[in-house]
Amino acid sequence: MRLALVLAFMFVSLLMGCERQEEFTPIPKRMKVLISINIKDGSVTFFDLKREKKYAQWELGQPIQGGVLLNNGSTLLLYGHELDRAYEYNLATGKMEKEWKTGKGIISALVSNDQQHLLLADQNQKAIRIFHMNGKENGSIKIGSQPLTLLQNSTGTRVYAIDFQDEKAAVIDMEKHQVTHTFSVPKFALGGLLREREQELWVGGHGSGSSVETVIHIYSLPSGTLMKTIPAPEMPVSFAETNEGIFALSHGSNTVRKWDHAGEEKASITVGANPFVMIGESHYLYVASYDSNEVTVIDGRTLQVVQRLTTGKGPFQLMIREEG
């Protein structure tokens, strides 16, 4: 009898533990938050940007690699190429509401500008798969091996998929769900910036071994022809454009560079330890350092560090959710 009670207690505790794993600290709708997805420990860190401090950290313990905000920022969908499904969480309750049966191989994601569709890049199927926001798949577009970088124009009618392995970028017509044309990019191309008014596409790159990427390639949007290159050693892999200028993060040299909107380089700063990703908004840049487990906040006007925020282990993606 005693053993039966102990086993029953252990079983109930296990169930309660599983339930707790699906419920985390709620993130208030009226809070503007910086979200860091950390891949070494499978966590997500939330920072209250108005109070400039950490608000919560979700310890999922899953091999997540990325995420996207859905439903105008009310939900967070998390995915990973080793996961056979994506997990949708309601930020306001901290609860998982839905599992998307995607299969393994998802390496990047993009929400359409009209918030009606989600594009998932699948390296196993070598395709961009299109999902409705209810989690149901609505078609796919065959494409290169590893389309890690996905960008869309302001109207959402075109998506640019830059492949990491196949030395090409594909232009997708989202109304017809088909590739209209491709153009050549360097192997191990990674990161990009779409500048519609200037009709430019800036493409970064990682390189491999002793042959690391040292320049940014700038292509014509209408034709896909290479217009020029600009130095940005080493490994320019992440970009941002704000009212303060154009910024590129060079992962290999731990450097953020700034250009004015005419493309003239103005300043640079060394930052972080093994930084992988940068985002920008308003006057600030946010740079995630993979090895030092922190986000460095930089003033985009002066290119000076103003704050450091501690994340989970291995911050790999950043996003900002505006207050509701």
From TrEMBL:
Protein name per UniProt: YncE family protein
